């Protein structure tokens, strides 16, 4: 009996001492965990705050000058605060942007689609395929201004001046790797059993790819194209060196052509409050457009997968 | 017997033709795809070659010292001289500072999105962060110029500038006579905000690839969430995390518009992070459109472009190599 008491006493006293340490240790671990948790919540709040700040600034300043004249008139010089003078707009830049983005997408998409097909269907693990994949990934993140310099040397210099087609070509080079990435990813999601079934019916490989695989991956491929459009719609740096910008509406692809990002860039840096206000409206237009395309792409992809 | 053979042979003829036709179609399509792949390879090659050709006159004129010469004098007389040191320095310093600012916050966001956020919040917050990545860089530039620049001027430089400059040893980094708000520091800040969503999204994707069993075992022996992340998730994903950071660095190095608006575009060696400076991309954007075709200045800008290409190629290639396990 006495030995038991002694035993329990010993057992009780030793853990009691450890419990204090253990509790202190536990408290410290919990405190550290909580601290990191709040820091992470804070970091996320900071990230969301930036997004909110950008959107609020855009809406607040962009809506101030947003009216019908933005969509109906071309560039006008500053009014120096004299409201009797006509107010300028951005229609020349909107049309120029649409034209260059459309041509850039039309050139870049088929090439990107073929490269993505090559990587997913023909060269999955070959040396050549790995090289193409690597280079395409580099192009995806390469500084876009260098693509402007490249097209300047390749197209602008031989043609003797800035041109809309040079701008469209620069945008096309940016489109290609975006479409390659999504096309390859989407084609790789298709189960091989589907391919085997088509080949088993006696169809040639190219028909299997164009009629079955493309159809199965359609929503993903369209998503890629949408993301590419969203990406090039806001590109400024390469256009500065290729299509340069223009103050009037022009559809002549061999001449300098206006674009929304360039018009924003020039008017935002003009120093005149009325032109800066128009630049903010342009910025709002571009951001809303780009984000809307992005959300559309996301919804499209989610509804299919 | 012969009849049946003939009968079976007769319809096989068109099948053979069809097979020939389809094998032609196959060859054609395969070569179309391969040709497009080769075109991509050629594009990168052509970018390197054209940049180098454009840069050749400047390289021939200045040689290797172009990289460390700080002179930039576009006046076309005997004083005309070009060196890339200021732009190269500005590019590297602004990108590294941006990484220093962005990585802790990006890590916090990635940790929050993978371990802490309630599941109903994960998707909307994740989407918001991805949308931040989709905002065009010119918008960051404009927002930076009209929102971040006044903030830095009023709330950072005026409030903390003197105290920071009085610090022993490192005070000179903050000592400046430039109170315009456009500076190397502001550019880094805007760059950091721009690359934040890229790094956060990559880190989140990488964290999500840790096999749940590893994390569950750690939770099972009583580890806290922070212990799981610091003891299991980070060691497991270390290499890919560095790859994601390098990806962000690659973007920061080549960013043009967000920087051009807020860095002040001064081709002088900055003595402090609050001094105006320039980067390769912004000096090209500012000065290239107004330089004469075939001039020495244009060649010097091509030379800077070529150097930027080399720097970002190395960084991006390293990033891709580090991220290769994630890509497979």
UniProtKB/TrEMBL annotation, chain B:
An annotated GO cellular component: plasma membrane
Highest taxon of source: Bacteria
Membrane-topology descriptor: Multi-pass membrane protein
Keywords noted in UniProt: Cell inner membrane, Cell membrane, Membrane, Phosphate transport, Transmembrane, Transmembrane helix, Transport
PROSITE patterns from the UniProt entry: ABC_TM1
Bilayer-spanning residue ranges: 36-59, 81-113, 125-148, 154-174, 181-203, 300-323
Role of this protein: Part of the binding-protein-dependent transport system for phosphate; probably responsible for the translocation of the substrate across the membrane.
Protein name as catalogued: Phosphate transport system permease protein
Taxonomic lineage from the root: Bacteria, Pseudomonadati, Pseudomonadota, Alphaproteobacteria, Acetobacterales
């Amino acid at each position: 009996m006495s030995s038991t008491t002694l035993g329990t006493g010993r057992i009780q006293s030793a853990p009691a001492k450890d419990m204090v340490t253990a509790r202190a240790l536990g408290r410290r671990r919990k405190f550290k965990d909580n601290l990191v948790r709040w820091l992470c919540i804070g970091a996320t709040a900071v990230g969301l705050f930036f997004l909110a700040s950008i959107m609020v600034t855009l809406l607040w300043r962009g809506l101030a000058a947003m009216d019908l004249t933005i969509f109906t008139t071309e560039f006008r010089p500053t009014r120096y605060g004299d409201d009797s003078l006509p107010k300028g707009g951005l229609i020349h830049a909107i049309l120029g942007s649409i034209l260059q983005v459309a041509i850039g997408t039309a050139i870049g998409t088929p090439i990107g689609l073929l490269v993505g097909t090559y990587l997913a269907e023909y060269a999955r693990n070959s040396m050549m395929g790995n090289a193409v994949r690597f280079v395409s990934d580099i192009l995806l993140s390469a500084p876009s201004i260098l693509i402007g310099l490249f097209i300047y040397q390749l197209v602008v210099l031989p043609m003797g001046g800035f041109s809309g087609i040079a701008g469209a070509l620069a945008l096309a080079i940016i489109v290609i790797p975006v479409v390659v990435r999504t096309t390859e990813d989407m084609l790789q999601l298709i189960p091989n059993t589907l391919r085997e079934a088509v080949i088993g019916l006696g169809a040639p490989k190219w028909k299997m790819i164009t009629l079955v695989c493309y159809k199965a991956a359609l929503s993903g491929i369209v998503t890629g194209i949408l993301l590419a459009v969203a990406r090039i719609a806001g590109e400024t740096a390469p256009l500065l060196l290729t299509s340069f910008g223009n103050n009037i509406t022009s559809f002549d692809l061999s001449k300098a052509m206006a674009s929304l990002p360039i018009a924003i860039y020039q008017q935002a840096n003009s120093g005149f409050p009325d032109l800066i206000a128009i630049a903010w409206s342009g910025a709002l237009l571009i951001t809303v457009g780009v984000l809307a395309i992005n959300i559309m792409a996301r919804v499209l992809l989610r509804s299919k997968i | 017997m012969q009849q049946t053979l003939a009968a079976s042979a007769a319809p096989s003829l068109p099948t053979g033709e069809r097979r020939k036709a389809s094998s032609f179609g196959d060859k054609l399509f395969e070569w179309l795809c391969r040709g497009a792949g080769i075109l991509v390879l050629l594009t990168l090659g052509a970018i390197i070659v054209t940049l180098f050709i454009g840069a050749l006159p400047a390289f021939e004129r200045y040689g290797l010292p172009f990289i460390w010469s700080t002179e930039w004098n576009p006046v076309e007389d005997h004083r005309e001289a070009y060196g890339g040191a200021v732009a190269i320095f500005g590019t590297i310093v602004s990108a590294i500072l941006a990484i220093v600012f962005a990585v802790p916050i990006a890590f916090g966001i990635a940790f929050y999105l993978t371990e802490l956020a309630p599941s109903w919040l994960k998707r909307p917050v994740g989407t918001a962060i991805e949308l931040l990545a989709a905002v065009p860089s010119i918008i960051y530039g404009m927002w930076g110029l009209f929102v971040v620049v006044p903030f830095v001027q009023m709330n950072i430089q005026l409030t903390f500038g003197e105290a920071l400059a009085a610090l022993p040893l490192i005070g000179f980094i903050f000592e400046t006579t430039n109170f315009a708000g456009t500076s190397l520091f502001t550019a880094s800040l805007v760059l950091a905000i721009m690359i934040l969503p890229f790094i956060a999204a990559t880190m989140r994707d990488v964290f999500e690839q840790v096999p749940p069993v590893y994390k569950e075992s750690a939770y099972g022996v009583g580890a806290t969430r922070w212990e799981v992340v610091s003891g299991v998730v980070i060691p497991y994903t270390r290499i890919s995390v560095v790859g994601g950071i390098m990806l962000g660095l690659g973007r920061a190095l080549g960013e043009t518009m967000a920087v051009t608006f807020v860095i002040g575009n001064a081709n002088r060696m900055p003595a402090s992070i609050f001094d105006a400076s320039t980067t390769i991309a912004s000096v090209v954007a500012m000065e290239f459109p107004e330089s004469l075709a075939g001039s020495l200045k244009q060649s010097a800008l091509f030379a800077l472009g070529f150097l930027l290409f080399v720097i970002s190629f190395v960084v991006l290639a390293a990033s891709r190599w580090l991220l290769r396990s994630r890509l497979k």
